Amino acid sequence: MPRAPPPPLSALLRRLSSHPSHSSAIHATLLKSSSLSSPIPATALLTAYAKAGLPGAASRLFDEMPARDAVAWNALIACQVRHSRPAAAAEAFRGMAAAGFAPTAATLCTMLKACAYSRAIRPGRQVHALTLLACHDDVIMKTALVDLYMSCGCVDDANRLFIHHMEDAALCNAFLSGCVENGHFLEAFLMLGGIEPNRIALTCALSACSATANLAYGLQVHCKALRCGFDSETILCNALIDMYAKCGRTVAARVVFDRMIGRNVLSWSSMIDGYSRHGHGREALDLFERMEKAVSPNAITFLAVLSACGHSGLVDQGRAKLHLMKTKYAIDPGPEHYACFIDMLGRAGQIDEAWDLYCSLRADRTELSGAICVAMLNACISNIDVVRGNKVAGHLLEVDPQNTRNLVLISNFHAAARQWSVSDESRKVIMKKGLKKEAASSHVSMG
User: Fold this and answer.
1) Which distant-in-sequence residues (6+ apart) come within 8 Å of 410 by Cβ?
2) Are 401 and 321 in the same domain?
3) How confident is the model over 264-299, as pLDDT tens digits?
4) Total domain count for the chain?
5) Cα 241 to Cα 252: distance, rounded to the nearest angstrom
6) Residues 3-23: pLDDT tens digits?
7) Where are the transmembrane segments (predicted)?
């Protein structure tokens, strides 16, 4: 029986676009038909590999391409950025220039994303200069630039770009989100007064209200969301739950939660965390049991549950949940989970069990972190265990020696243990370290 002819090239390219997971099979077909000698199908295959999560295959394909154009170079750079490889993106950017191709607007936008991801301000300014030289000055480019400067903490630079384009929703969202991330909450609130907010802007505003515990403004944002018909949006409702919980209004947070149409794992975790923050351990555990029937909890959920148990003194329940996450859900507890459990044991006066767990984690050095040491030291302080506390203080200095807050905790421990000379020496070290400023670094070199 004769073999069926391969589908036409146009059909293969459409299939690549809609089903990137089929890239390997289509690659073989394209090879047999010699279609990869042209940059158009080769670039389409490269992009499909990137979407399928196979950046290595995409890079190998690019290296094998007999003919490359600017679109192919852009696809390679975009692939590296998509998979959090800013250094490889910068290398491809330099290779594109060496091959004689001028960067297009798409090239520069992608490189701005790479610089923003790495918080690489100097290379980012170089790309900004290239956008000016090439007269790429549209709103899309300005949005990428605002994102770059906000990611690098350069709020004033972002503001100078934003101030003349406040009418664009995408640019407003980027600026507002950057203000919240950089703690410029007043600027965020003032900006919201002069624009017609959308669901993203309102979500950012709620994040600012959560960070500042600004219930009055949060209520206004909630009213605006209701008037605009955004109250059924899952992401916005999650932000409302977080805002009300952090403002101490767990009942209001629960009302929002109960009225939600589509809850995801973050919705449940946020509500459990809200109960945890205010010592409602039983409510948190009841909600967790309901959650298990609806969606599978994740590591963040279990951290909220452990915290709730710790703040409410529910040690047996906390121990059971730590076991549950490992056995039923195959989630490996991270340092933050162990730190939370050690803190729980310390609060309950079960210092021996806390110490046994701490020692087992220390035996496996990969599990020991500054947070675990801090939790164990706090347990020693609350249980007046000077001998173990001295050992933990030494371990903490080994694990995280540059953290000034840890030095303050160690000094307080020595003072509580009446070890005045050691406490005074710690204070002197703190004063010296407090005068030093960490220098910024960049992991992207534009060459």
Assistant:
1) 377, 393, 396, 397, 426
2) no
3) 999 999 999 999 999 999 999 999 999 999 999 999
4) 2
5) 8
6) 444 567 778 788 888 888 888
7) none
